[in-house]
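Retro notes, item 3 of 5
We never archived the inputs for the cytidine-5'-monophosphate complex last cycle. Fixing that now. Sequence and ligand:
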Amino acid sequence: MMMDSCTLVAPAKINLYLEIIGDRPDGYHELVMVMQSIGVADRVELKALGIDTFRVHCSHPLVPTDTSNLAYRAAQLMAQQFPAAFENWGGAEITIDKQIPVAAGLAGGSTDAAAVLLGLDLMWNLGLTLPELQELGATLGSDVPFCLSGGTALATGRGEKISPLSSLSGTFLVLGKFRSLQVSTPWAYQTFRQEFGKDYVGDASGLEARQHRVHSGPMVSAIQHHDVGKIAEHLYNDLERVVLAAHPPVSQLREVFRSSGALGAIMSGSGPSVFAIAESQEKAIQIRDAARSAIPDPDLELWVTQFATTGVQAVGRG
Ligand code: C5P
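Structure as it came back at the time:
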């Protein structure tokens, strides 16, 4: 049966842990991360067009709607990989309702691309497995495989190798982002390499030892024990070393979160969004209000949200 439309929810992610270990022959970095889906999410709607083309719509001024959009590239990849299905069912109109801040370290573009992969898999009746979708997703961007499975996971390699961890539901956080501030991910990694590349691990056994250290370390153990206090205590992000120095307001926001009763607060991914882990929803609201009073700048956007247990999901089909 032909499906005419598919609506998906595409959650953002934060990094509870991000360690840069070394260089890779492909020019990327070897990472060890703990990724967490959150309740702030885009809505992505696919509508069959009946002709062999894709169109992207998004009302956010910073999201391109041309071929550089990662969601568009996801659709093109599906058409190229499954030419018979594309010929049979045609392309789609892709409408992105952008709720996730752009260029914020929250995988907003990657999660939209993940939604398009899953949406076309469903609309074209391909029956792809999660690992198959993740393998396709890895060719689009390092965060796409995580966005497909979501929840709480350890990510290694470029960030595309995912091992699920026990899921953490009911944990509240406050997310903050200065609306006019964007950080380029390539800039953050390149600057990190220039400043700290001399300390990179160069050999395979060294890499493995660093991965093992995280795998058997306090963050993963805190997650296994659902110990939110310990998780907050062990939050870590190497990219803070370059991004906070370049953007003092981001550093200030992190300090305000920390002094307003957060269990812990750090920058997510390549920033500049910052999140604070709270003991309860009530505490999260208090922290948000305290941050609002301390930084009355209308450019600062704040959200109270929760950890989410899933990645992209279809919520409606027609
Ligand atoms: O994979 P993605 O397109 O999201 O990566 C964006 C940029 O971030 C890359 O071009 C690279 O500069 C940097 N990056 C990296 N190492 C990774 C992931 C990303 O250096 N593991």
